[in-house]
Design a protein that fits this description.
The structure holds two protein chains of two kinds. By secondary structure, chain A is α+β, with helices and mostly antiparallel strands. Chain A is 21% helix and 39% strand. Chain A has four helices and 14 strands. In chain A, the strands form four sheets. A four-stranded mixed beta sheet of chain A has the order 2-1-11-10. A four-stranded antiparallel beta sheet of chain A has the order 3-4-9-8. In chain A, strands 5-6-7 form a three-stranded antiparallel beta sheet. The radius of gyration of chain A is 18 Å and the shape is globular. Chain A starts with a strand and ends with a strand. Chain B has nine helices and four strands, in the order αβαβαββαααααα. In chain B, a hairpin with a 5-residue loop joins β3 and β4. In chain B, α6 runs antiparallel to α7. Classes of the chains: A alpha+beta, B mainly alpha. At the A-B interface, β10, β11, α4 and β14 of A face β1, α2, β2, α3 and β3 of B.
Chain lengths: 136, 224
């Protein structure tokens, strides 16, 4: 099993790592990223990213898809440890741009010292000073 | 840090949500206990806030209105780098820099008070154009740095210290402006602070560049 660390946590996926390529089922890719493989390409809602012509075999192999090639196609970060058992992916720039342009404060859920989860959206209706600090 | 402010104006539709960018289990808790805050204090071991909001140092804050929209993007929250002027001979920081620290902090807190009192009418609430101008442009190197930092935290949690170190070093190389990445992963003194000789060297390497870039805000003391 391969671990993939995302912004919302880490997920175990039955995937095959080949250097910077990471092959998994199309269904796993959809669950992980929201992108669905269709004839038009990889689609998130109405927006589809076509598979580059002539490079189909780098992206799709039967029922498997290559998250490595796809994520790099989106100019999104995808990195892994030396052994390829642990991976980490970043937010695609297009999604980030939409989010940033909207000026909506991105929601998140984090625990307090007692382990209780709090989301930023819990405080909707108040002015919030979101203040980062650290013990280091 | 914010308790007095919350006691003063926390009943007017305002709250602080403090987030500790602290990866080491148990590290922020003593500080939280000592502060005994009445506002939520959350623990962000993977530094998600840095990745989502573009935080590179602490203290940094973002102002978010009642509708959940950013009205001031991530910026230094009332801090000044007086520590850089510590005079070894005197054994103290010169008075002018201590005074400047106070002025910067006061200006920042006053701005918050004004925002809480006047809402969108406050001069400190930025327009969408001003916010976009102040924000960091998307940078693939920074995005990769954040992905590697998260990977490093995961590997460290599994006991792969060498693997984690490789990811942290690469993250800092890709995102050299991030003190949060560097200090979180640097060697700590006994009190848990990354303030030893390596930190001093990193600060010295700044040269004329600022550790806490001055904030453009009405009421801030003018730059010399």
């Amino acid at each position: 099993m391969t671990t993939i660390v995302t912004l919302t946590g880490s997920i175990e996926v039955d995937a095959a790592a080949e250097g910077d390529e990471l092959w998994m089922t199309a269904d796993d890719l959809r669950q992980l990223t929201g992108y669905e493989l269709k004839p038009e390409g990889f689609c998130l809602d109405e927006v589809c990213v076509p598979v580059p012509r002539g490079q189909e075999s780098e992206f799709v192999r039967g029922s498997e898809v290559n998250l490595g090639a796809f994520w790099r196609q989106l100019d999104a970060a995808i990195v892994h440890d030396e052994g390829g058992a642990s991976w980490s992916i970043g937010e695609p720039p297009t999604e980030r741009a939409l989010r940033v342009d909207s000026l909506v404060a991105p929601d998140f859920t984090l625990p307090d010292a007692a382990g209780r989860p709090h989301s930023l959206s819990d405080y909707r209706g108040q002015k919030v000073l979101l203040a980062a600090w650290a013990s280091w | 840090m914010w308790q007095r402010l919350v006691e003063e104006i926390g009943d007017r539709g305002f709250t602080v949500v403090a987030v500790a960018l602290d990866s080491e289990p148990g590290a922020p808790e003593p500080w939280i206990e000592a502060a005994n805050p009445t506002y939520p204090v959350l623990i962000d071991r993977a530094h998600l806030l840095s990745e989502l909001y573009g935080v590179v140092n602490v203290p940094t804050a973002v102002w978010i209105d009642e509708a959940g929209r950013i009205v001031r993007p991530a910026e230094v929250a009332g801090a000044y780098e007086a520590f850089r002027y510590f005079d070894r001979e005197q054994g103290a920081i010169p008075g002018e820099h201590l005074e400047r620290s106070k002025q910067v902090r006061r200006a920042y807190l006053d701005a918050i008070r004004d925002w809480v009192a006047r809402g969108a009418a406050s001069e400190h609430v930025l327009s969408p154009g001003e916010i976009q101008q102040r924000r960091q442009a998307a940078d693939p190197a920074v995005a990769e740095a954040h992905a590697r930092f998260r990977l490093g935290q995961y590997l460290e949690g599994r006991g792969d210290d060498a693997g984690a170190r490789a990811q942290f070093d690469e993250a800092s190389r890709l995102h050299p402006e991030s003190w949060a990445i560097w200090r979180q992963t640097a060697e700590k003194l006994e009190n848990g602070i990354a303030g030893g000789p390596a930190f001093a060297a990193q600060v010295a390497a700044l040269g004329e560049r600022r550790y806490y870039p001055p904030v453009e805000m009405a009421g801030m003391p003018p730059e010399q």
